[in-house]
């Protein structure tokens, strides 16, 4: 093992013991003590599985996890243990990742807009890989970080659906000028980051020709860099891969489209290494959140027009939770809708469904978590459960000062833990206690075998 994660960082549970079971037992304890603090349970084995799927589906692509997506200790430690790199948006994230011992060459300072103080911090802490997409950012790095290795972010012009203000990345037309300017300022450019790919993934426009087009434009940009004498050898295809199974396109389908575009424009053996920054893909489904209702109010239902006969009969309730969109539910600000709440207790059959909306703590302004969900009438103190809550819910710094960060209980099954050890080419220690009849290779973890060798990741060769 690499020593980032050990058995004191999580609960080792038997295979088949789900995070829902863990959540129920935690709730049972809390209800006894009438404690109402919201909390998470996280299944680290789910992240191990996602990693194996990633290696299998995109064998040429090295993942760098964007820390802003989930900076919780268990996630960062596990991903470091798995050999992933990290995409950091600022100095705080770089410091967090380095504090557990991740070497600088596995850190990508990926934000397109950087403060000078943070650039200096990266420079003094050995972080070299960075990205830029305009003159101003280029100038800041040129003056403050002579060792930087830069990826030029491009946004192919083929993204009409995205509002221009949402778009990072230089157009191909400005690409040559930026590369020339980098040359004049003696800045080392090592490759291209293709911002368009992320946006297409996010909007699920899985047209193979759109992908091929974006990768083709990246190749044109590579050629421009090469012409100017740069050794272009790194392509970043970004993030945006789905984290749950309910999306229109499955991860494997997306991977197949990406692979064929890569094979066409950056064939194996061309000397270009490919990285990606998958965030929600890794963590969404691993985290389940439980929060209780702190207060409720009934709101008068609107009666559209004069035919208020049926519409007047239904009640409409607003529930406040102890946490809102300035805390855990900030995921709703990152284009992922709030997951449908599940009830902890079975509803009473005679309780009719009400049109309900969920809000954060009272007094936080327009803290609207979700509107218009059908729930039976609930009481103060009732718990709601939200699945798929791993992405953009746990931040290094909460937007809500004074909101307590919910506690996270991490669990991993014995088999996931063994699979992780196998993946690193280390036989797991012999079990002395209750040996399970099931080994990782016979319980749905078969893919470990084909992925065991060689070392997952050799970052030194990237830079
Ligand atoms: C936030 C971020 C992403 C987002 O990734 P998702 O997969 O959509 O969660 C990707 N790359 C970088 C560099 C980011 O900062």
TrEMBL record:
It holds the Pfam family Orn_Arg_deC_N. Residues 44-284 form the Orn/DAP/Arg decarboxylase 2 N-terminal domain. GO terms for molecular function: carboxy-lyase activity. Its cofactor is pyridoxal 5'-phosphate. Gene3D superfamilies: Alanine racemase (3.20.20.10), Lyase, Ornithine Decarboxylase, Chain A, domain 1 (2.40.37.10). GO terms for cellular component: cytoplasm. One of its GO terms (biological process) is putrescine biosynthetic process from arginine, via ornithine. InterPro entries: Ala_racemase/Decarboxylase_C, De-COase2_N, De-COase2_pyr-phos_BS, Orn/DAP/Arg_de-COase, Orn_de-COase, PLP-binding_barrel. Keywords: Lyase, Polyamine biosynthesis, Pyridoxal phosphate. Belongs to the Orn/Lys/Arg decarboxylase class-II family. Catalyzes the first and rate-limiting step of polyamine biosynthesis that converts ornithine into putrescine, which is the precursor for the polyamines, spermidine and spermine. Polyamines are essential for cell proliferation and are implicated in cellular processes, ranging from DNA replication to apoptosis. This is Orn/DAP/Arg decarboxylase 2 N-terminal domain-containing protein. It comes from Callipepla squamata (Scaled quail).
């Amino acid at each position: 093992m690499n020593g980032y994660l050990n058995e004191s960082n999580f609960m080792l549970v038997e295979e088949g013991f789900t995070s829902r079971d863990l959540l129920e037992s935690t709730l049972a304890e809390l209800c006894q003590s009438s404690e109402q603090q919201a909390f998470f349970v996280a299944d680290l084995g789910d992240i191990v599985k996602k990693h194996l799927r990633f290696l299998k589906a995109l064998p040429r692509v090295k993942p760098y996890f964007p820390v802003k997506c989930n900076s919780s200790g268990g996630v960062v430690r596990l991903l470091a243990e798995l050999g992933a790199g990290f995409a950091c948006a600022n100095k705080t994230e770089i410091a967090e990742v380095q504090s557990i011992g991740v070497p600088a060459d596995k850190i990508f300072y990926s934000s397109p807009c950087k403060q000078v103080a943070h650039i200096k911090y990266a420079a003094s802490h050995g972080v070299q890989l960075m990205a830029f997409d305009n003159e101003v950012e280029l100038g800041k790095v040129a003056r403050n970080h002579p060792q930087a290795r830069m990826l030029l972010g491009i946004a192919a012009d083929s993204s009409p659906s995205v509002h221009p203000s949402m778009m990072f990345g230089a157009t191909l037309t400005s690409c040559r000028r930026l590369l020339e300017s980098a040359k004049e300022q003696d800045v080392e450019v090592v490759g291209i980051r293709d911002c368009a790919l992320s946006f297409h993934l996010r909007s699920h426009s899985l047209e193979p020709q759109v992908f091929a087009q974006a990768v083709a434009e990246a190749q044109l940009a590579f050629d421009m860099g090469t012409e100017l004498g740069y050794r272009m050898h790194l392509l970043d295809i970004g993030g945006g891969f789905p984290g749950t199974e309910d999306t229109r396109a499955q991860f494997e389908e997306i991977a197949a489209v990406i692979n064929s575009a890569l094979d066409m424009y950056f064939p194996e053996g061309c000397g270009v290494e490919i990285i990606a920054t998958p965030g929600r893909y890794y963590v969404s489904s691993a985290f389940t959140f439980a929060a209780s209702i702190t207060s409720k109010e009934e709101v008068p239902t609107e009666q559209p027009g004069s035919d208020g006969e049926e519409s007047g009969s239904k009640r409409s309730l607003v529930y406040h939770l102890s946490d809102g969109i300035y805390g855990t539910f900030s995921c709703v600000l990152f284009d992922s809708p709030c997951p449908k709440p599940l009830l902890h207790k079975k509803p009473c059959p005679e309780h009719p469904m009400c049109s309900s909306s969920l809000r954060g703590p009272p007094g936080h302004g327009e803290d609207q978590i979700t509107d218009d969900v059908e729930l039976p009438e609930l009481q103060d103190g009732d718990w709601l459960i939200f699945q798929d809550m791993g992405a953009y819910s746990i931040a290094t710094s909460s937007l809500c000062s004074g909101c307590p960060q919910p506690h996270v209980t991490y669990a991993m099954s014995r088999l996931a833990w063994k699979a992780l050890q196998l993946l690193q080419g280390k036989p797991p220690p012999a079990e002395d206690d209750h040996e399970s009849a099931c080994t990782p290779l016979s319980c749905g973890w078969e893919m470990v075998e084909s992925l065991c060798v060689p070392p997952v990741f050799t970052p030194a060769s990237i830079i």
